[in-house]
Design a protein that fits this description.
With about 525 residues, the protein is mostly beta strands. The chain is built from 7 helices and 33 strands. The longest helix is centred in the N-terminal third of the chain and has 12 residues, at about 60-70.
Length: about 525
């Protein structure tokens, strides 16, 4: 089976569609009329009677939704075996598709080459109804088949059995999920079809299974609730419809540049006030077509990305995460279950030394004979003199990346401003806040603190010592944008980034962590990470 590349719509298009159809609770119409069948009239089984959605008052907005559907090629498949149902729409709301399956082991005297199940079908949408900002209900009208279901014929030694389209038979309505739909709001039945194919993978030398769900859907989805059948899609437009965002937002950074081009490519740059930390998030089009779609020349691809930043970069050598000996390391080579790669390097010297890393992902829009390759790069550069963030946090930050279907939130800068930092044992309070037992971290070579606490070199096990622990927990409020980074992922998870709610749940299960905590001038926690301890 072919692997489907997935892409997403822009937020601008979402705004155009926002008024499509009537809201739930309005008076419903009778079921949609039957469209004219094709030349070969198939006795299509009667669909289970359901109320069809009302057509929208403004047909211009309905046309906009139909145009959106025409820019995606839909597929219903499990990813295993050779079966699938393809579905394509046109801007006028008409659609066509094909169901196909094969059993090459099912042979007979007149069909030694096996058996194929097939159905070519057509139809015309009869309207749509808005369910939510990113969700619509489509009225399929009547689906017509080009061959009578249940009939068969033999051609070139193959038996063709004409059947119904799996996932669409006996169906009047489909749910449509536009790019940007929160994954948390998707039905469990729909996620069952797409998660194994797109939001999970096997990691490291031990081939461990892990899931990494994006926050929002980055392709257009269709769901047949009656048959519990979920369609994914790939973009057939030459324009980019996919974006990379970081779910973590960093206090102390400001957005310096944000350009989103007409073709969907973009360039975003964030920086701290001193220029010690710089984050570049970009997408650019490969003009040379598929010939530049390269998985082996990782170094060459990173160097090309660095040229796009406009800064002078002279990395001498790269290190690439492989996961060959470390399963945890391999999480950096995935992006919501999709194959990516991460490289690290250092450059400069003395005062301009920087430690850098980049995560790179490539995907193809199959919009022609060759297709268009888009490259996405998220580059982080940290000066050792940076007070806000260290190389350690730089690496953790990469696990907060997610594929997205809307262009808002490309910047990693938070609106929060850091005021001071503490270290302590942290657990959730079960109500969205934190309880912190503040301690003193004493590192190797800190002679002042070692003297204060009467410590000797023998006390500095693993080059650090924790003082004043156990004085009691103090409650702290947490900002809405606060991110938590832990050193090791939970079992089955493939990220080190956590929301406040997730960390609260983890700590309630006994996973209290020693963390460095960043606070604003109101003593509100705005960022927290777990330092490495041997």
């Amino acid at each position: 089976m072919k692997k489907v590349g997935l892409f997403a719509l822009s937020l601008l298009l979402m705004a155009t569609l926002a008024g499509c159809g009537k809201e739930e609770g309005e008076e419903e119409t009778k079921p949609a009329e039957v469209v004219e069948e094709s030349e070969t009239e198939a006795e299509v089984p009667e669909a289970t009677p359901t109320e069809a959605p009302k057509p929208p008052k403004d047909t211009t907005e309905q046309d906009a939704l139909y145009k959106t559907l025409s820019e995606w090629d839909f597929l219903f498949s499990s990813g295993a075996g050779g079966w699938g149902t393809d579905l394509n729409f046109k801007e006028d709301g008409s659609y066509s598709g094909m169901y196909h399956d094969s059993d090459m082991g099912d042979t007979g005297k007149n069909y030694p080459n096996g058996t194929v199940y097939i159905c070519n079908f057509t139809g015309q949408l009869k309207g749509c109804k808005k369910i939510g900002p990113y969700e619509y209900e489509l009225n399929l009208g009547q689906v017509s088949y080009d061959k009578q279901s249940g009939t068969e014929e033999i051609e070139d030694g193959v038996r063709y059995i004409y059947s119904e389209p799996y996932g669409l038979a006996d169906t009047r309505t489909l749910r449509c999920y536009l790019p940007g739909m929160p994954v948390a709001d998707l039905p469990e039945g729909y996620l069952m079809w797409v998660a194994n194919m797109y939001f999970s993978g096997y990691y490291g030398a031990d081939w461990e299974y892990g899931e990494d769900y994006p926050e929002e859907l980055y392709f257009c989805g269709l769901y047949n609730e009656a048959q519990d059948a979920g369609f994914t899609s790939s973009c057939n437009s030459e324009d980019n419809r996919l974006y990379i965002k970081n779910r973590a937002k960093l206090p102390g950074l400001t957005n310096q540049k944000l350009d989103i081009n007409d073709d969907g490519t973009y360039f975003c740059e964030d920086m701290d006030i001193y220029g010690y930390v710089r984050i570049t998030n970009m997408c650019f089009k490969e003009e040379q077509g598929l010939s530049i779609y390269r998985e082996e020349d990782k170094e060459g691809l990173i160097r090309e990305c660095l040229e796009k930043t406009g800064y002078d970069h002279e990395p001498e050598a790269f290190y690439f995460m492989t996961g060959e000996y470390n399963n945890t390391e391999d999480i950096y080579n995935k992006l919501n279950g999709q194959e990516a790669f991460m490289g690290t390097w250092s450059e400069g010297g003395n005062e301009d030394y920087r430690y850098c890393m980049a995560k790179v992902y490539q995907n193809v829009n199959y919009s022609g004979d060759m297709g268009t390759v888009y490259t996405y790069a998220y580059i982080v550069e940290v000066d050792p003199d940076a007070e806000l963030y260290s190389v350690e946090q730089e690496k953790m930050l990469m696990t907060g990346l997610t594929l997205a279907g809307t262009s808002d939130g490309l910047s990693t800068a938070s609106q929060e401003e850091p005021s001071w930092e503490i270290t302590g044992y942290v657990k959730g309070d079960g109500k969205g806040g934190l309880l912190i037992d503040e301690v003193v971290w004493i590192g190797w070579g800190d002679e002042g603190l070692m003297k204060k606490y009467n410590l000797t070199d023998d006390d500095m096990v693993n080059d650090y010592y924790i003082a004043e622990a156990g004085d009691g927990y103090v409650p702290y409020k947490v900002s809405d944008d606060c991110s938590f980074f832990l050193q090791f992922p939970e079992e089955g998870s493939q990220r080190l980034w956590y929301t406040t709610e997730e960390y609260d749940r983890r700590s309630s299960e006994g996973s209290e962590a020693l963390m460095r905590i960043m606070l604003d001038d109101q003593d509100c926690v705005i960022f927290a990470y777990e330092p490495y301890r041997p």
